[in-house]
């Protein structure tokens, strides 16, 4: 099993740090809050135990004038809160080319490193960014005498990051997962959208004109909107699966459109993602629903498992062929259901 221990052992002082494996329990929602916003911060204790991850955001969406207040606010919240076993504490620090990130990492690891599970690093361009954060964390953990390593999560939101996603996923034993960052990625790729995630009504395919119909071009033709994010999510999922870490869909900015949010989250779930960001409490329930296997899927998976006996060969169930490979898919569903109920 990969662990952070081997990677930073040369920098650790005294006894080697205990192993901390990538958490077995995937997080369905990473709930963002701005620690500089007092109203928002006051609601955090009530969310403990109801969300898988609380993430104190220091990067985009926090005004430049509030960066220090956000950092200090997160330290205060973390010190005052017992997060229990069901909720992890994460942070998103500022980007590695910003004037704030060094103080973010130094302050947070020094002050609340014992409470912090994962540091999310935005705009990761390649494995060298992860190596830098990894070494910095090792130094700070050793200095603070921390007994468990802090894990690292990368946001995939630049064209260069996407080109390097396999190396990013493999860059360190600290890697916990990767999220799609559709808003920054759209800008970096020069896409012509103006949204935070989700689809676009202009990105579609149209049914062919009916043959022999006069003025066929103007005939009623079915239109299918396409998923702008399919390619990147699929690539990210493969990179994560190769390295045993977790892939996530990122933000869905149209808070009112709960239906489209659920669709986008479900596409990501079906493609292999384990969770998504929630930017508003309404998205917590959506993520919980989408990223937990449904009772029907679990029941079907159990039926296939029972019917497949020793797991080899093929059987017919409801007119459909099941075999070793469909059983493996069912076992993925059952394992996830079990992890989430643990
Ligand atoms: C998230 O950070 C994004 O840019 O979508
Ligand atoms: Mg971004």
Automatic annotation (TrEMBL):
It comes from the Bacteria. Keywords: Lyase, Magnesium, Metal-binding. GO terms for molecular function: lyase activity. Its cofactor is Mg(2+). InterPro entries: Aldolase/citrate-lyase_domain, Citrate_lyase_beta/mcl1/mcl2, Pyrv/PenolPyrv_kinase-like_dom, Pyrv_kinase-like_dom_sf. Residues 31-195 form the HpcH/HpaI aldolase/citrate lyase domain. The keyword Lipid metabolism does not apply. This is CoA ester lyase. It comes from Nostocoides vanveenii.
